[in-house]
Each structure stands twice: as structure tokens, then as C-alpha cells.
Amino acid sequence: MIRVVCKAKLKPGVNVEEYLILARKVVSETRKEKGCIMYTLHEDLNDPSIITMIEEWETEEDINQHNKSEHVVKFVPELRKLRESTEINLYRELK
Asked: Which of 87, 94, 92 is nearest to 52 (CA)?
């Protein structure tokens, strides 16, 4: 299993709800994808302009297919326009 943490800092003045409308479209479509175990949105408790997606995938290949999916190709560029910065990290659980 692979976990992905995608932390986005929104640009000053961006309406969080505007961002979430687009992000929720990605979430709802992604949850239908092969290999998607979990895909959730989170708001930072101390800074509501930081939105983090936490994902769990069966394999790296599933993530690669997700990144090529129609909804990612369509909505992620629009989400990027609203972000000041993005940090994406992939994790594998240690036993």
C-alpha cells in the first residue's frame, strides 16, 4: 500500500470554497478508480488556507493511472492556479 500526502497552500485571496468545489470533483471521481483505498480532503486546524489530500493506493501503478485519468487532467491544472505552493509526498509503511 502507498500513501500520498498532497499539501496545498492557497494563494492569498482565494476563496477556500471555490477551491473545494473543484477538489471535491476530483475526490468523488478518484474514489471510483481501481486501486484507490482512500482519498480524503483535510483542512489545517491553524490555517484554513492549507488543504491536504490524504490518499491510500494499492500500488504505484494505480497512482500512475490515476495521474493520467480524465478528471485529474481536467481539474488539477485548475486547482494549481489557485495554489501558492504544493508539496506531494509518497509513503510506504515500514514493518
From this structure: 87
**CA–CA distances in Å: residue 18 to residues 21, 36, 61:** 5, 25, 31
83: alpha, beta or left? (left if phi > 0; alpha if psi -120 to 50)? beta
For 30-71, how does the pLDDT look when each residue is reduced to its tens digit (9 = 90+)? 999 999 999 999 999 999 999 999 999 999 999 999 999 999
Instruction: Give the side-chain half-sphere CA count within 13 A for 36.
Output: 19
62: cell is 494505480
User: C-alpha angle 35/40/41, rounded to 5°?
Assistant: 145
Task: For residue 66, give the C-alpha cell.
Answer: 490515476
d(CA 73, CA 29): 12
Cα 58 from Cα 60, distance rounded (Å):
7
